[in-house]
């Protein structure tokens, strides 16, 4: 491979290397696909915190009420019934309904807490893109690469760390209350269930707070990893710019076509103009004064260099007077657009030019009358 080919290959490599931050358009596209930085630990910790706080405040009354209703129903109705498949089915349905009634508020509270955890991370968003089946996920080679990728190793390290810390927290809580745990066999069922429930709530709250603390660095990492995943190469940015703005060559042709059409319209108006003010070579401004259209003279056409030469040639073909005034030509070219009236500070200079043109036309008409 020669040196030039090697240089081209290196340039192509650096052009395709994803080193640039994602553009707002790329961010919107990835968001619509459901690809957003999000830590599941935030959702889990908020859900656990809300659920165990609810159990801490109302769990005892819910359990007592559920068991009281269940015992009342069993001892009042089902204890005296004959054991048959139908009676067992009714008993199972009753117990399930009462348990579901007791657990349903807790499930709704957990769902609301999980939704709130997602909202504070990514805002309001709804996307069905992650639910679509993608055949490339079944590719064993890509799956193998994902398993042994750097991201997978980071996730494994995070999981091991969380399990270790959570396990340590649970062991510490049990160890500090070991005497109460050892005396459970000597307590009544109600007191034993109360101690077990209290320890469970303590462990749940401690784990929730621990996960909430761990979710902060995890969320920072997820944002970093997301930014890394959506990076773009210089070529990607150029291609996106082309798609938004259009191909520069096409834009150039379109602009050239618009200029040609504008020039054609100007050329069509020149035969009806009153005067052409020139630089004499660089600028040409065509003026017309029509009281029915405007109170002051207005610009019919203007051009510079090549366009100015075309305007002057067109004016000569139709006998439009040309007046050389360098300062006025420059001022009109820079201060007015086609269709605009002459600025007030140039009224006097333009009026003198038009007066000269009108006198010239009057002399020409008188001369023609004499010859006839």
UniProtKB/TrEMBL annotation:
SUPFAM superfamilies in UniProt: EscU C-terminal domain-like (SSF160544)
A Pfam family of this chain: Bac_export_2
Top-rank taxon, per record: Bacteria
PANTHER family membership: FLAGELLAR BIOSYNTHETIC PROTEIN FLHB (PTHR30531:SF12)
Main location class: membrane
Name of the protein described by the UniProt record: Flagellar biosynthetic protein FlhB
Species of provenance: Alkalicoccobacillus murimartini
Entry keyword set: Bacterial flagellum biogenesis, Bacterial flagellum protein export, Cell membrane, Cell projection, Cilium, Flagellum, Membrane, Protein transport, Transmembrane, Transmembrane helix, Transport
Similarity section: Belongs to the type III secretion exporter family.
Transmembrane segments: 46-68, 102-126, 198-221
Function text: Required for formation of the rod structure in the basal body of the flagellar apparatus. Together with FliI and FliH, may constitute the export apparatus of flagellin.
Gene designation per UniProt: flhB
Membrane topology category: Multi-pass membrane protein
Compartmental location: Cell membrane
